[in-house]
Amino acid sequence: MRPSRRITAVLAAVLVVCLTAAVLTVTHADRARPVSTLEEVLYVPSPAIIKRMSLGYTGLMADIYWTRAVQYFGSKHVLHSRQYKLLAPLLEITTQLDPQLVPAYEFGSIFLTQPPPDGAGDPDAAIRLVQYGIQQNPNDWHLYYDLGFIFYLDKKDYPAAAKAFAQGAKVPDAHPFLKVLAARMAERGGETQTARLLWTTTYETTTDRNIKSNAISHLRALDVDEVVPRLEGVIRQYKQRSGQLPQSWVDLIRAGYLPGVPLDPVGHPYKLAAGGRVEVAVPDDLPFITQGLPPSMQASEKPKL
Amino acid sequence: MSRVTSIASNTFREAVRDRVLYNLIAFALLMMGASLLVGQISLGVERNVVINLGLTAVSLFGLVIAVFIGIGLVSKEIEKKTLYTILSRPVRRWEFILGKFGGLVATLVVNTFFMAIGIFAAVLYLARHFQKADAYLLVALYFIILQFVMITALALLFSSFSSPLLSAVFAFALFIIGTFAQDLRGFAALTHGAARWIATAAAYVVPNFAALNIISSVAHGQPVAGSLVLYNSLYALLYSAAAVAGAMLIFEHRNLK
Hints:
By secondary structure, chain A is mainly α.
């Protein structure tokens, strides 16, 4: 017996209406419930147990935990959170499930080192993570580079950085620049020029657009941090000679101190602020800068050297 | 031999008629979703996820098919009384079991073949080109097929003396135990005296599925040793042969009245 068209139409309509109403109801129910705190909970904190539970499919499980770590970091970062409690455990689980998952060490160490609110501000955890990565992947020179990078920029431990770069340089197919970096570390750790070289190497050697973009931001910040004190020095010279502060860049150009209006790395003209200070026009466009910020804005805690 | 082939081809046709291959639609949707979404929600692991997800799905989908079809291969024929028609012809009981086994393995190989096309298409979509290391995916897929052969043999063995429900439970339990094969050997090494012998024997009797799972390493493009391919092939062949022989033996002596 064929079902009647009317019954079919009625049942289809009931199905659609009920499903839509159910979805609407559940969204109301979600709003009525107190805010869940589940986000900050790791149901199974032990990597060993998770490994057993994955029934051998550890690769996929590691990808899931890595994606969870990225999502956790992203959601906290958007909210300018200063606490990243689950980040280190999530990265530990990810890398123990799949010790060859190199992006987890590379990005994970960046997430961990960057000071709050840009990251967890825990370079020691990042060092432990990358050292574990090197132990598991001794022939990947990128990891030695990352380790040296953290020692140099975040711990300012130049001998340790030199050692990491030198060890990385011994790895087959390592980027030749590691030898140069090791030598520079040993000779002149702490120079802006060395920091610039590090970020330039990062930019040139990575194929990942997120790491490239991060390197550009740091290179721009280094530019600003170099240019702003230099411009403020020029303003002081002008004041010494003319007895007053310049009213605009035009005064400095006319006096022959500057060839034109100085522009920041994103192309905005620098602002000549009160008291002979120099500020960037749009601070949000230049993360990681420590110079040229308006007095109301806190300087990034990110070390530049 | 032609009798075995006939039973195998009928088993394959029956599986297709039972819409077993519909799982390919779910698999295709999974691969498409993974290829499009992963880049947006994760970092630097797009190729890894597609390979891990693809191969894991091939393995799990196939496992479910192998167990649920495998346990019904004999019991369904008894229930529908078609077994008596078959056995009234010049077909030996062992030929029936071998044909059923071959038919289900063929179904799983065809299913895996289409899924493999899906995985390679997703990898090509993400990377825009193939690399030499992608060839190792074929080895991982081959090992997954070896897993299916072993699981099908075990499901058939259990179904030859037990109810379908219990057979499914036994087969899944053995699959889970088999993924812990290395740990079982480790535990056995910790014991002493007679317990050590018993534990070691038990650890070696359960199927070693851990050795057949190389999904994570091929996702990183790591090469697979030729010796591993050889030993895994031999192991799967011998283990499955033993399980199928056991199934034949039990079925030969089973009272079907």
